[in-house]
Each structure stands twice: as structure tokens, then as C-alpha cells.
Amino acid sequence: MHRSVEADLLSLRCVIPFVGMPGDANATGWLAALQRAIPESRIVAFDELSAEEKARCTVAIVANPRSADLQQLTRLQWVHSVWAGVESLVRALSNTSVTIVRLVDPALADTMAEAALAWTLYLHRDMPTYAQQQRQRRWQQQPYTAPQKRTVGLLGLGALGEAAAKRLASAGFRVCGWSHGRKSLPCVHCFAREEGLQAMLVQTDILICLLPLTPQTEGLLDAQRLGWLRAGASVINFARGAIINDADLRAALDQGHLSHAVLDVFDIEPLPADCWQWAHPRVTVLPHCSAPTNMETASQIVAARIRAYLATGVIPAGVDRDKGY
Description:
The chain is α/β, with parallel strands linked by helices and 325 residues long. The protein folds into two domains: 2-105 and 293-312, NAD(P)-binding Rossmann-like Domain (Rossmann fold); 106-285, Rossmann fold (3-Layer(aba) Sandwich), CATH 3.40.50.720. The protein has twelve helices and twelve strands. The protein has a seven-stranded parallel sheet with strand order 8-7-6-9-10-11-12. It has a five-stranded parallel sheet with strand order 2-1-3-4-5, covered by helices on one side. It is elongated and about 70 Å long.
């Protein structure tokens, strides 16, 4: 059966569809980068596929595709996402047996680690306060705290969380991290499961969220868990907007329990102009820019997996549908 799959693809000159959202400004760039990475195959935009090609494709490269488009690929066996987050794919393919392979790219992890350090330093060195003082034309030095006396807590210790933890520890911060399953990392105090979550949050000064969005993590940071953070703590969300309860976050900021929130992700993106976060004095809004995917390195990773599949017929390991990642 595996050789039949390969023969079918070869007979079509290895046509591999790229399926994204209509009108995506990045689609042309992805098509070019993927074609360079897989020159022996033809990477074709979904709308340019013939009916025969749609009927025979067994693998597709995807970037936030519409479920209706994927349903037209009736022989589809697996998809490779060019994003690390796959919650929308899990929903789109919930009634199928299609294997979902997510992007795990060391370059992406390094970029995220850079962002984690940059925005941690932004909070650590009181940049929001100094910006406010400038607007008020007020000259006042804030007390300095050494990084060794500041605890940064990471929610999520996957590839992104581990890279961020190492970068933060090398900068001198006390670093702790939480994950569903117990992990052991150098220079990181690791916590796990529900009881570990509270134990970590109560000692955290700056919390960085890097969790995938799953049924278990949606709304995870609610009023109770935000309340476990140290008084005056700050939050950085680089994960998904739905992981933090929006109303509870606003209340924690308004009440002064949290001093600041750096938000790079939101329930609705782009963030509508009338949303409260834009004007809140304790919020920094970012346009989902913390760790943009590197098209060249990501395409090389996707290419290696597809090339191995074409040679062997073996589908790479996919996400756990129950866990959502």
C-alpha cells in the first residue's frame, strides 16, 4: 500500500497542495520557500489544484486552512502545519482520522526565547512605569531589583518553554516552570499537575504563558489562579488569548493585584479598536509578533518529513488528539 501511495504521487509529479486561508498575504512567500525546499515536487496552491489532483492527494501542507477545503481532499492521510499551534486544525479535522503534524522548529524556539527575555527585562526594569513618568514629565528613579531576586514562572515546558527557561536562567533570573507531566530541566524548578500550579504561581513575579490551547488550558488563568500570583506580579501571554479569562485579567489589573500585562495574543485578531486592552494603562498590546515563523527553516523541516514519507510511505508521528498537541 505504501508503494502505491508513492506511485500515485510520482505519477502526478509529486503534487503537494499548500492549503491556507483565502487572501493570506503570506501564501506566496510560503509557496516559494516550500518549492525551494522540495524542488523534486510541485507545491501547488489549493485553488490551483485540478479535480484529479485533489482526488489523489494524500498529504498537504497547511496554514490555518478551511475545513471545507480539506474535505475536498478525499484521500488525505496527513497534513503538516507550518505553525506550532494546531488547535484550529484539531477542530477542523475532528471527525477524520487524518494525522496532524505540527511544526517543531529550533529557530522558532530561539526567537521565542529572545522575546521571553526581552519582555521580561521590559517588566523587570520598570519600563511601563518610566514610560508613564515620561508622559507626565516626572523625573523619578525606581528602586532596582537584581534578577537573582526576581522569579519568572513559565507555563508550558515544551520546546518553546525549555528554550525560554534556559535564556532567562542565563540572564540571572530565578526560573520555575509548570507542565502537565513532570519534567526535569537544569536551572529550572519544575512543577506539574494542579497542585504544582498553585505552588509555582504563589512564588512568581513575572508569569509567561507558552501553553498550547486545549480544552484543559482554555480559561486556565482565571480569577482564582491569577490571585495566586504574588501581589504586584506581571503576566506575559505569548500563547493563545483564550487561556486567560479576559474579564478576570482586567479585574486583577484594575484592582492592582497585577501591575502589568504584556499581551501578544487575543481571542479576536487583529484586536478590534474598541477593545479595552488598547487604552488600559497597565497593558502593553503586541500584534502577535513575539515569534514569527521563519519560512526558510520551517520549510526545510516540512520538506524533510515529506521527503521521508515519499521514500517510505511512513506517516510521521502526529499530535495527540486528546491532549490537543
